[in-house]
Write a structure and sequence with these properties.
- This protein is an alpha+beta fold.
- The chain has one domain (47-273, 280-317).
- The chain contains 9 helices and 13 strands.
- The strands form 6 sheets. It has a 3-stranded antiparallel sheet, with no helix packed on it. A two-stranded antiparallel ribbon has the order 4-5.
- α3 (109-119) packs across α4 and α6 crosses α9 (306-317).
- It is globular and about 65 Å long.
- The two termini are 21 Å apart.
C-alpha cells in the first residue's frame, strides 16, 4: 500500500494538509501537483511481523547506536527521536524513544496501530477520536472503534494484540548457511552496512512495564535475542522529500524533514519496492540510492567485485 503525504512549505517549514496531509486510505494513487509551495511524497507500508519484539527493545540500546555512530569515521550520525506512546499521554513516561513509522514517530505499537486504523482504514478510535475535517455533517458519523459486546476488546486492542503475537520473519536457513551467504554477511559488515542495519538486540525481560506503564512485556517476547537489522534511528541518505511526520501535529519536528528511519531488513526477500517511497526495485538499486550519510558506504559497495556483490546479494536474499 502506498500513502501520499501532501502539504506546503512556508518560511522554510512544512505544514501538512488537513487530515495530516494523508491523501488516501485505500491504496489507490492520489497524486497532486507539486507546483509552487506545494510538496508531496509517497510512503509505502512497512512490515509488521515481529513488531512486538521491536516494541520491547530497550530505548537505551537505540540511543547507544547513535553514540557509536558518531565515533565511526563514515560520516554517519543517526538521530534518536522522542515519540509519544499515545495510550499513556498524561503520564510522565509517555515520551519514549521512537521506533515505528518512517520517521520513528511512534514509540508504541498501540499508538502506531491507532494512527493506521484512522488514516489508512478510516476508523476513528480512542487515540484518534476526531471526525475527519472533510466529513460532511449531513452524512452519518465515520465509524468509531467500540468494544466488542462479548470480548470487551476494541479493534485497536485486537489489532495490536495480533501483531504482538507474530514472530519475526524467519531467514532462508539454507541460503544463510551457504558459502556465498556467509561471505556476503562478512562483506555487509566490512563495507559499513551494519553500522545502521544493526543486526542483534535482546528484548527487555518479561514483566518489564513499558509505554508509560500501560503494557507489560510478556514471557514469549521477554529476553529474546532478535535480528531486525536496523538502528531505528533517522538518517539523511539523500532521498528526503522535505516532509516531517508526527504522531499528532503537536509533536511535529521539522528537523526530521529529510530524514528516514533505517528500515529493518528482516523479511527483505519478500519485498519488491524498497525504501520509503517504494521506488527502488530490488536491493541493488536501493543501495545505489544511498547518498548523504551513507555515501561512503555506497562507494564501498560500488568498489566490490562482481563476485563480492553476488555474495552480498546472497546474504540479503537470505533475510
Amino acid at each position: 500500500m502506498t500513502v501520499q503525504r501532501v502539504g506546503s512549505v512556508s518560511m522554510g517549514k512544512f505544514a501538512p494538509d488537513i487530515e495530516g496531509g494523508i491523501h488516501h486510505r485505500n491504496g489507490e494513487s492520489a497524486r497532486t501537483s507539486d507546483s509552487g509551495s506545494r510538496i508531496s511524497g509517497d510512503r509505502i507500508s512497512v512490515n509488521l511481523l515481529g513488531d512486538g519484539y521491536i516494541e520491547a527493545i530497550d530505548g537505551s540500546d537505540i540511543e547507544r547506536n547513535a553514540k557509536q555512530q558518531i565515533q565511526s569515521d563514515l560520516g554517519i550520525a543517526g538521530m534518536a527521536v522522542s515519540a509519544p506512546a499515545l495510550e499513556a499521554v498524561g503520564s510522565k513516561s509517555a515520551m519514549q524513544v521512537g521506533r515505528f513509522g518512517w520517521k520513528s514517530q511512534h514509540a508504541s505499537l498501540m499508538s502506531s496501530c491507532a494512527d493506521s486504523l484512522r488514516n489508512e482504514l478510516g476508523m476513528r478510535n480512542r487515540l484518534y477520536p476526531d471526525e475527519y475535517p472533510t466529513h460532511t455533517a449531513a452524512d452519518s458519523p465515520t465509524p468509531f472503534d467500540t468494544p466488542d459486546a462479548k470480548t470487551r476488546k476494541t479493534e485497536l486492542e485486537r489489532l495490536a494484540e495480533e501483531i504482538r503475537q507474530t514472530p519475526p520473519p524467519a531467514r532462508d536457513a539454507s541460503l544463510a548457511a551457504s558459502r556465498d551467504g556467509l561471505e556476503g554477511e562478512k562483506l555487509f559488515t566490512n563495507i559499513g552496512c551494519a553500522v545502521c542495519h544493526v543486526a542483534t538486540y535482546k528484548t527487555l525481560p518479561a514483566g518489564t512495564r513499558i509505554n508509560g506503564g500501560t503494557y507489560k512485556v510478556p514471557k514469549f517476547i521477554g529476553s529474546k535475542v532478535i535480528h531486525p537489522y536496523s538502528d531505528f534511528l533517522l538518517h539523511d541518505v539523500g532521498t528526503g522529500d522535505g516532509i516531517p511526520q508526527a504522531a499528532k501535529p503537536e509533536y511535529l519536528d521539522q528537523s526530521t524533514a529529510n530524514k528516514f528511519r533505517t528500515p529493518p531488513l528482516w523479511g527483505l526477500r519478500f519485498r519488491y519496492g524498497m525504501m520509503h517511497d517504494g521506488n527502488a526495485t530490488g536491493s541493488h538499486r536501493a543501495i545505489l540510492r544511498h547518498g548523504g550519510e551513507a555515501a561512503t558506504v555506497r562507494q564501498h559497495y560500488e568498489h566490490l567485485t562482481s563476485t563480492e556483490k553476488q555474495q552480498l546479494q546472497a546474504f540479503l536474499n537470505s533475510l
